[in-house]
Design a protein that fits this description.
The chain is built from nine helices and three strands. It is mainly alpha-helical. The chain folds into two domains: 69 residues, Helix Hairpins (Orthogonal Bundle); 105 residues, minor pseudopilin epsh fold, CATH 3.55.40. A three-stranded antiparallel sheet has the order 2-1-3, with helices on both faces. α1 packs antiparallel against α4, α5 packs across α6 and α6 runs antiparallel to α8. The structure holds manganese (III) ion. The site of manganese (III) ion has 7 residues, from α1.
Length: 220
């Protein structure tokens, strides 16, 4: 058997076993005051690392899965052997969702989307404010842990809340962006006030990164 070595790049779309925690590309306090440094440190270094470790533990047992990218694995849950299916679904989803999450955040200082992305938001939701309201509403209504994603269906934008670490990759779709509404994402600073976290979070959406993803995903 060939020896598998981890890739040095952290491109989640091509990553295969053994999976690696992608480095955070900014300081833990870079998103203050919206997301505090302690939350970022725990979230990235402990929670995300644990998803990676448990995913590797599960995939280690299955040579077939080791030949597939994580996106391929997650888009075909039925083909995963039952004894590791839940572990791969939860921890693989955790890895792929958080790998997106770190990359679409940056203090935006009141910045707004522009260009084709702004046009699509206005067309599909009426206005940026209406889009945020609908997204936040989906986040508040997500019972328990989960995510709110925006998916680019061709040009068209759709909001989709999903439980646990489920991910649009289950339907073969890479999400455009999304917010983590697990308590570990906000509890230290916002306690039980998920609506306040959802509202504040718009100040750390990296609209340039989202616009780049939109360009790539809608032409995919
Ligand atoms: Mn999380």
């Amino acid at each position: 058997m060939e020896t598998k070595t981890a890739t040095t790049t952290s491109n989640i779309n091509t990553a295969k076993y053994p999976f690696e925690l992608p480095p955070l590309e900014y300081d833990f306090d870079a998103l203050e005051p919206v997301i505090d440094a302690e939350t970022m440190k725990l979230h990235h270094d402990k929670h995300h690392q644990a998803y990676v470790d448990k995913l590797n533990e599960a995939v280690e047992k299955n040579a077939d899965l080791q030949d597939k990218t994580l996106a391929e694995i997650l888009s075909d849950l039925d083909s995963i052997p039952e004894d590791i299916r839940s572990a791969v679904r939860n921890n693989g989803g955790g890895h792929i969702n958080h790998s997106m999450f770190w990359k679409i955040m940056k203090l935006n200082e009141g910045g707004k989307p522009s260009g084709d992305l702004a046009t699509a938001i206005d067309r599909d939701f009426g206005s940026l404010d209406d889009f945020k309201t609908k997204f936040n509403d989906a986040g508040v209504k997500q019972f328990g842990s989960g995510w709110v994603f925006v998916i680019a269906n061709g040009d068209k934008l759709e909001i989709q809340a999903m439980p646990n670490q489920d991910t649009p990759f289950h339907k073969g779709r890479e999400p455009l962006f999304g917010n983590d509404v697990w308590e570990h994402a906000y509890y230290l600073k916002y306690n039980n006030r998920r609506p306040d976290y959802l509202k504040a979070w718009w100040d750390v959406v990296d609209w340039d990164a989202v616009a780049e993803r939109y360009e790539r995903l809608r032409s995919a």
